[in-house]
């Protein structure tokens, strides 16, 4: 539990935020699938990314140099090696799916393993595309472990069918390896715009940057045989992490924050979010020469801000936290899918914000499902002084902490131990911009979420 | 394309090469034309642009810096350039020295441009101290990885000015070319002098030609040691027509000369190949040079002939590979500058000649090849050293060998000639993965 105190004296200063995990994961895979050297700048080393990086090395990638700021490695292109022992995916469905797709390029059998938790998820159910393209997949799982054998083929190509209703990861996996097939790969998706379209857009954009020929069709994609160019992958800043700092500027009594080493992603959702911020009265100014982003409070551009959340699901909890503290009336639409994430994020945020004393209400679709939420105009002054629950969700935790900075009384929040999933240095960053809270410190002085 | 996916390729001996082959467009000219067009406000067109990966690196860099670049048909680029390039951009020059040095000049007026290469063992090992010193003289704040000016390099031109600057050009003329591009962007006159020597004047003449076509006025001394860029002329949009690539053309001519052959090498104009045709004729190669085709009948006895590498630096390795099959010793002199390319093209190349069974010697400024007409036994593996020139030269040795050669990392041929192995097959060579 962490006790967050009201930021009555305002906030200010410099902060650094993590870089983007999705960019990092794709950069590792694109580097593996190129047969010339690559460099990743500002690597985002989540546990998932580290595991993927280790797996890529077992498939033939060689690491030339690694520092805190960059990692240099050389991939193998089509010459994927068959690892002698099973590849572990440490419970990451993304890693297992993408490695299975890569293994389809190898000359031989690759064993992939996942932990028991993955048995309960539909990880195995959507790998049929490997067989459709000329490889083979066999499920060797036991009751305790997920275990899959992928048999690669030297001649991949044809038409694959992907179910995009539940996850974009399978589509991303297939897209990434498709340029290295011998024949064109036609991908038929189960529905036009499946879930996680932003992630698919990111995959396609990064593939094209590296020289792949990918074309969207009515039913999905066509990918022509080719190869990836190597290059410099500059990992963008994580704009969801950015949202918490922008949120503090909105909820604190006053202040401004400057993000250092900020790299914009150039993708639509980030631009959309920054536009929403401006409407709410939070201006962001990017100086590309100094790689900084100044976040400051200004006059809002509208009295009533209506937000379409379809493309910005990860920042919906932050927007819920900010909404009671900005001047305009706020209405968020099309956020129902956010209730399908790690927990029912919209429902949980509204429940906890109301527990803190915020006036925020759900909005509903014609079918009676929660569609989003709304707040009345005018900055609220919720009492706080309660214990809020983050339900094991790191995004809920940081969003509640953001709101707590604007409350009148200190607010306790449970679940800080899950911050490692996206923003391990969150407390250190908060402290640097002047936030006041009670959290444990490790013997070497590092702020620790556990108390 | 498919050959480039492989980390090794085996080049088999060739009994006979026959057919017509067209080398790609010049990467040297293409890179310069792309940059000139990207700096010119308005719409430019480049025809017969090179498919080389180095040129792709220039295209991607210019697009990242603010130019709009489209290809409306194969081999043609349409560019909408701007003088207001973006600040704070990270530029990847690939493994190309010319892309790096030209862009160091062109971005020196911007705020905080950082150059990073994935090729730490090739471009990353090449020093840029000549360019760094010159830019600092002109008020640019430069940070580098070390005193040799190796990458990563960051430039901040907030306080840049014109004036007089000297740039040593013994190791490379690319620094001078980069400064001449910079001169076209400054609001004040710029005078560049070469205090030591210009080892390779041909690429500088290409730079001057492209700059002239782009409207940049440069007054040049007869000995090519002093250059004055007139104030405020500015880059103008225009149309650039690219000729054939000198390195690729020289490689094809030498390949065809090395084995029994009847090959027409078609071209779109020869650039930076001074003395190459004469050299081949003196070596005994039967050549008929028309306006757009060179007919080669190879397979005869190769006579050892010396070559001045300053005339055509890109031709040295293929001509040296051919000389490895001459009946005697050939000397390639005036070539120190080719030590500072994708690899040390004297020492590293000699290592691969030795691996293949060819004796050679080196001086600081010279490569001496002891030829043997019967060719090497082959059936060994040689390395590309990240260098297209090494790949093409060792392919020649393989074609003339008894069992062929395996080349490690052959994909780097794409820096200049992505279709090299396909073209080789088309005229009768055999390449297998």
UniProtKB/TrEMBL annotation, chain B:
Pfam families: EPSP_synthase (PF00275). Pathway: Metabolic intermediate biosynthesis; chorismate biosynthesis; chorismate from D-erythrose 4-phosphate and phosphoenolpyruvate: step 6/7. It is an enzyme of class 2 (transferase). Residues 13-424 form the Enolpyruvate transferase domain. SUPFAM superfamilies: EPT/RTPC-like. One of its GO terms (biological process) is amino acid biosynthetic process. PROSITE patterns: EPSP_SYNTHASE_1, EPSP_SYNTHASE_2. This is 3-phosphoshikimate 1-carboxyvinyltransferase. The lineage of its organism: Bacteria, Bacillati, Actinomycetota, Actinomycetes, Kitasatosporales.
């Amino acid at each position: 539990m962490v006790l967050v105190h009201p930021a009555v004296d305002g906030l200010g200063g410099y902060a650094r935020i993590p870089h983007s995990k999705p960019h990092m994961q794709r950069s590792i895979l694109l580097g593996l699938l190129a047969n010339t050297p690559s460099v990743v700048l500002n690597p985002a080393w989540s546990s998932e990314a580290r595991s993927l990086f280790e797996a890529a090395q077992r498939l033939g990638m060689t690491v030339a140099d690694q520092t805190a700021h960059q990692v240099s490695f050389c991939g193998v292109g089509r010459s994927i090696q068959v690892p002698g022992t099973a590849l572990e995916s440490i419970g990451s469905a993304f890693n297992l799916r993408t490695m299975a797709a890569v293994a389809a390029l190898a000359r031989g059998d690759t064993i992939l393993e996942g932990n028991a938790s993955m048995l309960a998820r539909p990880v195995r159910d959507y790998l049929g595309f490997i067989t459709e393209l000329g490889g083979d997949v066999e499920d060797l799982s036991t009751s305790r472990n997920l275990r899959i054998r992928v048999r690669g083929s030297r001649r991949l190509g044809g038409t694959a069918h992907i179910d995009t209703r539940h996850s974009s990861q399978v589509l991303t996996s297939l897209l990434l390896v498709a340029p290295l097939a011998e024949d064109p790969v036609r991908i038929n998706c189960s529905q036009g715009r499946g879930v996680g379209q932003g992630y698919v857009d990111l995959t396609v954009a990064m593939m094209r940057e590296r020289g792949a020929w990918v074309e969207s069709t009515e039913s999905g994609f066509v990918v022509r045989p080719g190869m990836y160019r190597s290059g410099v992958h500059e990992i963008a800043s994580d704009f969801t992490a950015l949202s918490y700092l922008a949120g503090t500027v909105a909820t604190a009594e006053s202040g401004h924050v400057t993000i250092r080493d900020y790299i914009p992603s150039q993708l639509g959702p980030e631009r959309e979010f920054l536009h929403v911020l401006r409407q709410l009265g939070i201006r962001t100014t990017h100086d590309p020469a100094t790689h900084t982003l100044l976040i400051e409070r200004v006059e809002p551009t509208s009295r009533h801000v209506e937000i379409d959340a379809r493309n910005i699901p990860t920042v919906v909890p932050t927007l819920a936290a900010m909404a009671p503290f900005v001047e305009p009336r706020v209405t968020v639409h099309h956020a129902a899918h956010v209730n399908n994430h790690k927990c029912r994020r919209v429902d949980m945020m509204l429940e906890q914000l109301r527990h803190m004393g915020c006036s925020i209400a759900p909005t509903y679709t014609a079918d009676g499902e929660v569609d989003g939420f709304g707040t009345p105009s005018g900055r609220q002054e919720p009492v706080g002084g309660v214990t809020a629950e983050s339900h094991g969700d790191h995004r809920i935790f940081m969003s509640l902490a953001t709101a707590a900075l604007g409350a009148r009384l200190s607010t306790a929040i449970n679940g800080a131990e899950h911050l490692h999933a996206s923003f391990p240095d969150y407390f250190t960053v908060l402290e640097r911009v002047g936030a006041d809270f009670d959290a444990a410190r490790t013997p070497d002085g590092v702020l620790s979420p556990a108390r | 394309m498919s050959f480039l996916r492989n980390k090794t390729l085996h080049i088999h001996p060739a009994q006979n090469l026959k057919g017509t082959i067209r080398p790609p467009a010049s990467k040297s000219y293409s890179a310069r034309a792309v940059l000139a067009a990207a700096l010119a406000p308005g719409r430019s067109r480049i025809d017969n642009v090179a498919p080389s990966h180095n040129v792709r690196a220039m295209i991607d860099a210019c697009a990242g810096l603010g130019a709009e670049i489209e290809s409306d048909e194969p081999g043609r680029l349409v560019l909408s350039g701007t003088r207001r390039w973006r600040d704070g951009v990270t530029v990847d020059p690939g493994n190309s020295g010319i892309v790096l040095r030209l862009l160091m000049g062109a971005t020196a007026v911007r705020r905080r441009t950082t150059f990073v290469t994935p090729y730490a063992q090739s471009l990353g090992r090449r020093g840029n101290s000549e360019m760094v010193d010159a830019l600092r003289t002109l008020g640019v704040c430069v940070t580098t990885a070390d005193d040799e000016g190796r990458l990563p390099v960051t430039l901040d031109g907030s306080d840049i000015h014109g004036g007089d600057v000297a740039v040593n050009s013994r190791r490379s003329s690319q620094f001078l070319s980069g400064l001449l591009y910079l001169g076209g962007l400054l609001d004040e006159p710029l005078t560049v002098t070469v205090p030591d020597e210009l080892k390779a004047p041909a690429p500088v003449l290409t730079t001057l030609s492209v700059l002239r076509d782009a409207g940049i006025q440069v007054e040049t001394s007869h000995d090519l040691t002093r250059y004055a860029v007139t104030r405020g002329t500015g880059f103008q949009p225009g149309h650039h027509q690219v000729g054939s690539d000198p390195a690729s053309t020289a490689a094809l001519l030498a390949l065809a000369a090395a084995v029994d052959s009847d090959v027409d090498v078609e071209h779109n104009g020869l650039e930076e190949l001074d003395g190459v045709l004469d050299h081949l004729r003196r070596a005994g190669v039967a050549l008929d040079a028309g306006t757009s085709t060179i007919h080669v009948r190879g397979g005869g006895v190769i006579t050892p002939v010396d070559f001045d590498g300053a005339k055509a630096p890109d031709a040295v390795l293929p001509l040296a590979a051919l000389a490895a099959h001459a009946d005697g010793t050939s000397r390639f002199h005036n070539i120190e500058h080719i030590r500072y390319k994708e690899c040390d093209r004297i020492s590293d190349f000699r290592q691969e000649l030795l691996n293949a069974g060819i004796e050679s010697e080196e001086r600081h400024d010279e490569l001496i090849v002891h030829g043997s007409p019967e060719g090497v036994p082959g059936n060994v593996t040689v390395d590309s050293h990240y260098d297209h020139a090494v790949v093409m030269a060792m392919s020649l040795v393989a074609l003339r060998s008894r069992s062929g050669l395996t080349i490690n990392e052959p994909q780097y041929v794409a820096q200049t000639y992505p279709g090299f192995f396909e073209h080789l097959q088309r005229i009768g060579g055999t390449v297998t993965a």
